[in-house]
Amino acid sequence: MTDPKVNVNEIKQAVKDQFSKNANKYVTSESHAKSDDLPLLTTWLDPQSNWIVLDVATGGGHVTKQLAPYVDYVLATDLTHEMLHAARQFISQSADNVNYVVADAESLPFLDQSFDAITCRIAAHHFPNPNRFILEAVRVLKPNGKLLLIDNIASENKSFDHFVNKLEHLRDRSHVRCYTLSEWSTWINAAGFEEMNSRIRKKTLLFPSWVERTTESDEQIDEVKQHLLQASPEIHNYIKLVKVADEIVSFAIDEWMVLLKKTS
């Protein structure tokens, strides 16, 4: 969770500012739009034609677009109005069973037991209090409802954890934290979810498009680049850094995908 000294409102305003400026980049981002987790999440969820689904922090709308053909209705939410507008433009021509609501993942404006399934993909590292999101998810899910969560995670190795989270923050000032699996497990178990399926994979990111998506100056890009290049050989091996001379081609981070079921 966030340091109590940190102003949560300032964090959420930074998220709004960042995604307002870069909304269309997230719609077209290959790592968001073309990853194999999109068809896989449909297989894992096994969506039913009568389901009402909540897609939290929809971003470019890729999960909503993936699930809409299989269910009765999808409600796509995001903290950022401009991000929702971009998602609607992306989705509207292929699905007419979707609606859009500006909403905070940590304070969902919905009644208890409203949804058959909830999804949240590549977003929770922007949440200052992800434990609150987990509690909100279990609240608005129907009995036996499912939560499918996908996000970048930090290593239990403190050095790797610090390196990756500093890297993410240098590149994106709205980044809060990639949380560890043990942190997530604590919140999930306390909320009463049962794990049905999970995987951890190395997700390869192409450096030029990744760094340009959120940085605002050449100086900021260089700061990110130097952080990568000056890391230890052990960290380079951990992130699978690929470079040609001093030009960074790609690196990899850990991504966790988990399917949970509400047990009561």
UniProtKB/TrEMBL annotation:
Instruction: Please give one Pfam family short name.
Output: Methyltransf_11
Q: Which residues form the Methyltransferase type domain?
A: 54-148
MF (Gene Ontology): S-adenosylmethionine-dependent methyltransferase activity
One GO BP annotation of this record = methylation
Query: Would the keyword Methyltransferase turn up in this protein's UniProt record?
Result: yes
Q: Which domain of life is it from?
A: Bacteria
Which keywords accompany this UniProt record?
A: Methyltransferase, Transferase
The record's family statement is: Belongs to the methyltransferase superfamily.
Please report the name of this protein according to its UniProt entry.
Class I SAM-dependent methyltransferase
Question: Which species does the entry assign this protein to?
Answer: Paenibacillus albiflavus
